[in-house]
Amino acid sequence: MHKRISKSLAIFLALLLLFAVSGCAEQKTNNPTTVTTAVADNQELETTLELSGVLVPAQTVDLSSKISGQVTNLGFNVGSAVKAGDVLIQLDTEALKAQLMQAEAGLQSAEAAAQSVQNQASLAKINLDAAQKLYERTKSLYEAGAVSQSQMDDTTDKLNIAKNQSENASGPAQNQAQAAINTAQANIKNLQVQIDNATIRSPLDGIVTNQSVNVGTVVSPGVPVISIVDTSILKMKCTVTQDLLPLLSINQEMDIKIDSYPESKFKGSISSIGPIAVSTGEVFPVEISIKNNGSLTAGLSAHASMNTKVSGVVVPASSVAQNGGENCVFIIKDNIASKRVVRTGLKNDKGTQILMGVNAGESVAITNVNTLTDKMPVNAN
C-alpha cells in the first residue's frame, strides 16, 4: 500500500514539473522582442562619394597605311616615346617616283601642245583679219563692176575658211589642250599624295604600344600596322547610378587613389558624364581625367572620392538590414514591425539616405533588426 502511494506521488510531481516547465517556455516564447526606434527625418547628410574604375589612355590611335607598299624603314619600336610628326614607318617609293617623273614629262608635253595650239590660234586670227580685209576690198570692186562674180565668190570662200580655222583654233583645240594639262596635273598631284602617304607619321605625342610589321613586310591599305597611346592624361572610367548624377558636374575635382600606390595621392577632374545610360542597366558612364606624373600606366585600378552633402529622408545606419539581397527596414507602428524594402542612397557611419520606401515621420527599428520579421509583435521603446 505504501509503495503504491509513493509511486502515485512521484507521477504527480513529474506531471506538475512538466506543466510548470511548459508554462514557463510558453510564457517566454510569447514575450515580444524589445526594439529601440528612431524617427525618419528630412535632413542633410554629409558623406563621401566614392567611385571605382580602371585607368585608360586619354587617346589611342591605330594607324594603317593608305597605300600598298613594302616597309623600308621603322622609325621606332614598341615602348618608344614619340612626338607628333615623327616618322614611324617608311614605305618604298621608287616606283611612285618613277611614275611621278613620267607624269611631270606628260605635263610638259601637254603644256607644249597647248602653246602650239595657242600659236595656231594667233596665226588663224592673223589670217582671218587678212581675209576680212581682202573680202571688203573685193566687195567694193565687185560693186563698182571692177571684178567678176567668180573673183567675189573665191574671196568669200577664203573668208569663210579663215573664220572656221580661227574658231576651231580658239575654241575646241584650246579646250582639248587645257584638258590634257589638267589631266597631267591631276596625275602629278595623285602621285605626290601617294608618295606622302608612303610616310606614316605619328599624329600625337605618345608611346608605341603595338607594331605588327617589320622591314620588308608588304602592307595593305586600311590594315592597322602600329598603335600610339597618349598617356600624359589618363582617364578613370566608371559608372554611377542615376540618383548620383545631380551630385556630379564637368570639371569637378576629385581625390584619386591608385591601388598600386596606396601611399600616393592624386587629383583628377570629371571630364565626361554620359547623357545615356549604358546597356547593362540604369547606370551612366563617367570619365575622370588625371594628369600623369610619369608613374602611372593604363590598366591600373583606381578609386575617386569627394566630400558631398545630400538632403532627403535619412534613417540611422543601424536600421537598414540586408534580406535576400535587398535593403530593408522595419517600420514600427502600434508595436507591430512591418518590413519595407527600400532603395538607399549615400550613407555615412551614422545615417543612410532613403530614396524610396520610407516617409519622413515614420518610426524605424534600430536594434534587433536582423531578428525581426514582417508583422511581428515588438515591444518598442
UniProtKB/TrEMBL annotation:
Signal peptide from the UniProt entry: 1-25
InterPro entries: Beta-barrel_RND_2, CzcB_C, MdtA-like_BSH, RND_pump_MFP
Domain (CusB-like beta-barrel): residue spans on this chain: 239-308
Protein's UniProt keywords contain Iron-sulfur: no
GO cellular component terms, semicolon-separated: efflux pump complex
Ranges where the CzcB-like C-terminal circularly permuted SH3-like domain occurs: 313-369
Pfam families per the UniProt record, alphabetical: Beta-barrel_RND_2 (PF25954), BSH_RND (PF25917), CzcB_C (PF25975)
Highest classification ranks of the organism: Bacteria, Bacillati, Bacillota, Clostridia, Eubacteriales
Full protein name: Efflux RND transporter periplasmic adaptor subunit
Coiled coil regions in record: 93-127, 174-201
Stretches assigned to the Multidrug resistance protein MdtA-like barrel-sandwich hybrid domain: 60-229
Gene Ontology terms for molecular function: efflux transmembrane transporter activity
Superkingdom as given in the UniProt entry: Bacteria
Membership in a protein family: Belongs to the membrane fusion protein (MFP) (TC 8.A.1) family.
Keywords: Coiled coil, Signal
